[in-house]
Design a protein that fits this description.
Layout (H helix, E strand, L loop, with lengths): L1 E2 L2 H9 L5 E8 L3 E17 L3 E7 L4 E8 L1 E4 L3 E7 L5 E8 L12
Antiparallel strand pairs: 1-6, 2-3, 2-8, 3-4, 4-5, 6-7, 7-8
Length: about 110
């Protein structure tokens, strides 16, 4: 991961507008959502480190806001934005891809 560059993340997220994408959201401790299939309507990256990311889905019918995002990994196929707590532990993550993420684990019984 490298420090988030607002313009880089915004440009990378804009490639998903109008497309169906897979979303992973994680907030630690306590919650994650993996492989939610959404159609991205608009994207915003606001602030000046830490940043706030907004993603609108399904024609503006749904919204995800993630605060205190500081780091990124951007490739041709995926955008990952993360934030860390005061101890350097992963506290929040957004991952977006055009292909589903692997699903490992879970409680089936």
């Amino acid at each position: 991961m490298e420090l988030l560059q607002k313009e880089v993340v915004l440009e990378a997220l804009q490639q998903f507008i109008g497309k169906h994408a897979y979303l992973h959201v994680e907030v630690n401790p306590g919650a994650y959502l993996r492989n939610s299939k959404v159609q991205i309507s608009s994207v915003y990256v606001l602030g000046d480190n830490p940043y706030r990311i907004f993603l609108q889905f399904d024609g503006g019918q749904a919204l995800l806001q993630m605060d205190n995002v500081t780091h990124m990994l951007v490739t041709q196929d995926i955008v990952i934005a993360t934030g860390y707590d005061e101890y350097g532990r992963l506290a929040r993550t957004i991952e977006i891809s055009l292909t589903p993420f692997d699903v490992v684990g879970g409680n089936n019984g």
